[in-house]
Design a protein that fits this description.
412 residues, three-stranded antiparallel sheet, alpha+beta, 37% helix, Creatine Amidinohydrolase, Chain A, domain 1
Length: 412
């Protein structure tokens, strides 16, 4: 059955934000803007997930205003040439999706908002990320910083109140319809991976991109919007590069292949990883895979309401350290030694984003969805193994949403 997010979902989210934010300042939140790909071509548009969570609107540059009992959207007008290529914004559809009945054009909307901003001392919005995130090596969407700049031009003395923590807490605990959408995305991913990893099917693949292509086809034919993130299909030593996105190398029968993929359905993301053997796996490959599977089983035994992820990650680091020592890779268990072969966290939040919003200092509670993805990577041996499942926290513990997908080392 198709999962549909009606206007009542977005209206309820706006009301929850009003209740969390107890101030009287106007709330102003912007959509993302388009980003240049080349010349006059834009990259595929990806909406600011918190803006979508509040409105259901998938158009760029729209601004949401919530001021006391009034709420409205400011929709920028498009030049005729852009309308010819991209189409016009359908105001009736915007009203239907969001449940916000007042939709104003750029001139009318900003005239109304400007008059209000000149009279207040505070405005609540989502703080902007840095222009460039050095550790990730990427530029961020400028929409939030542009909105703040415009607000400051109107009233240089106005103080900004950051809504990010409220949205993090709201998005962290999934509502039933969100769980339903996530389960559908996960089921599509599971069924596709089961299809492409049948031994008779695996034997047909000569290159990583052939496997990637069949995964993409499997997602779309099962009703997904496409990939939730750039797929990773990496054989042998290439699996030791965690985000190996080239997916263009030939596959060898003596290699393990790691597939880290996820379908997107109704805006929600799955994120599942399996490592398979194209031929008969060696004893060493089996040992590493068994160690990772044991680590995941240990992680699942820990997850329940009240657990803090920082404490959990320390427990996981110690456990994987024991496995690394058993494998003869390290002699002493220290964070530095463990990170040589297990360089990432075990879990992250999952939802509208693959790495979804959430508070890592806040205890887990029912409705939180996270991944569980331990891995061991040994470049000097050409072995990289990761096993990842999607898990929802329940009242009594947790439920593995991707449990239908086998974890054993499948041999081609």
């Amino acid at each position: 059955m198709e999962t549909k997010f009606g206007s009542e979902f977005f209206a309820a989210n706006r009301e929850r934000l009003r209740q969390l934010f107890t101030g009287t300042a106007p709330i102003v939140i912007t959509a993302n803007g388009l980003l240049q790909r080349a010349g006059d071509e834009a990259l595929p548009f990806h909406q600011d997930r918190s803006f979508w969570y509040m409105t259901g609107v998938d158009e760029p540059d729209v601004v949401l205003v919530m001021d006391k009992g009034r709420e409205y959207l400011i929709v920028p007008e498009r030049a005729a040439v852009r309308q010819a290529f991209d189409g016009a914004v359908d105001s009736e559809e915007v009203v239907r999706r969001s449940g916000i009945k007042e939709v104003l054009n750029e001139k009318e909307g900003w005239k109304l908002l400007e008059a209000r901003l000149k009279k207040v001392q505070h405005v609540a919005t989502l703080s902007a990320s840095p222009k460039y995130i050095d550790v990730l090596g990427l530029y961020t969407n400028p929409a939030r910083s542009e909105l703040i700049h415009r607000i400051k031009e109107i009233n240089g003395d106005i103080e900004l109140l950051d809504l990010r923590q409220h949205l993090l807490r709201m998005r962290m605990v999934k509502q039933p319809i969100e769980i339903e959408a996530l389960q559908k995305a996960i089921d599509i991913t599971v069924d596709t991976l089961k299809e492409v990893t049948r031994p008779t099917q695996l034997a047909k693949y000569g290159f990583e991109y052939e496997l990637e292509a069949d995964i993409a086809r499997g997602f779309r034919k099962r009703g997904a919007e496409g990939h939730a993130f750039e797929p990773i299909v990496a054989g042998g030593v290439r699996a030791c590069t965690l985000h190996n996105l080239a997916n263009n190398a030939p596959l060898a029968s003596d290699e393990l292949v790691t597939m880290d993929v996820g379908a997107r359905y109704a805006h929600y993301a799955a994120d599942i990883t399996r490592t398979v053997a194209l031929g008969q796996p060696s004893r060493r490959q089996q040992q590493v895979h068994e160690a990772v599977q044991a680590a995941q089983d240990f992680a699942l035994s820990l997850l329940k309401p009240g657990v803090q992820l920082q404490t959990y990650e320390k427990q996981m680091s110690a456990y994987v350290g024991e496995k690394l020592r058993e494998l003869g890779l390290i002699k002493s268990i220290s964070p530095e030694e463990v990170r040589r072969y297990f360089p990432h966290a075990t879990s992250h939040f999952l939802g509208l984003d693959t790495h979804d919003g959430g508070d890592y200092d806040y205890p887990l509670e029912p409705g939180v969805v996270i991944t569980v993805e331990p891995g061991i990577y040994i470049p000097e041996e050409g072995i990289g193994v990761r096993i990842e499942d999607d898990v929802v926290i329940t009242e009594t513990g947790n439920r593995v949403m991707s449990a239908r997908l086998p974890k054993k080392l499948i041999a081609g």
